[in-house]
């Protein structure tokens, strides 16, 4: 039976590198892979994690033939280990801001349907105004945005609200709303209408791209039907190109529309409760934002504050 965790004993016997190694072991699900990631011998990694558990007086990892997985205590320790290392990064950013201006490394994660039409311009302005910030942008799918922010692999995520997202590990900030509209060829039977429903679109060759396939499946299920598509598309831009060619009809976020689309398609209101795409920013729960992250949040929200460039 594990004894009560002795914090003083843990502080004296565990260093920050061991915390980083433990996080790597959990993420890689194998201590050997964590050792490779942190560039140390596998035997040394095993010994360090064992010493960590001995110092804590409880098991953090269950060893299995397939690798390791966290115990309930290990999950708690993982959360706090990430917070400790995250706080060190914030401290580094704040100290650097005092001496050199806003600087550091930042990672933003979002979906292609948000980066291209909504974020690209603001990110370009941010990079121009903060040349000492090394900004990385990763394009990932909606659920992975939340996971990367929660793990600390990304500093800021921009995601679309969805019922299946677990947001317990992140703090959220409302960003903006974006309408989902119906798009049909300009000579289509529906083109003269002001608005349509999912049922109206489903009577024709309905093309889905990305997350819209899930929305169509839910809408079909509520009417007792089933949505099936012969098209496997990633982006709404591709769906729009097919509609403009007269192949079918679709629904996409309004931000996808460009001026050159409008002479070949008709855009209609979509009369469905889910036809509003709510977008949010996500940062890691319980972690104070550093100066660089705060500046990036302001830019994404289109409210940059005046700042002093480093001399």
Throw out a few tags for this protein.
single chain; 311 residues; alpha/beta; 9-stranded mixed beta sheet; 11 helices; 11 strands; elongated
How would you describe this structure to a colleague?
The protein is an alpha/beta fold and 311 residues long. It has eleven helices and eleven strands. Helix 6 links the parallel strand 3 and strand 4.
Low-confidence spans: pLDDT under 50, at least 5 residues? none
- Order of helices and strands, N to C? HHHHEEHEHEHEEEHEHHEEEH
Number of helices: 11
Give the radius of gyration: 24 Å
Shape: elongated
> N- to C-terminal separation?
59 Å
Helix content: 40-55%
Average pLDDT metric: 86
The count of DSSP E runs of length 2 or more, i.e. the number of strands, is 11
Largest beta-sheet characterization? 9 strands, mixed
Question: What is the structural class?
Answer: alpha/beta
Brief overview, please?
By secondary structure, the protein is an alpha/beta fold. The protein has eleven helices and eleven strands.
Give the topology, please.
Blueprint: H1 7-13, H2 16-28, H3 31-38, H4 42-56, E1 61-64, E2 67-70, H5 72-100, E3 104-110, H6 112-129, E4 133-139, H7 142-151, E5 156-160, E6 170-185, E7 195-196, H8 198-202, E8 206-207, H9 212-222, H10 236-244, E9 249-253, E10 265-270, E11 276-284, H11 291-300
Parallel strand pairs: 3-4, 3-5, 7-10, 8-9
Antiparallel strand pairs: 1-2, 5-11, 6-9, 6-10, 6-11
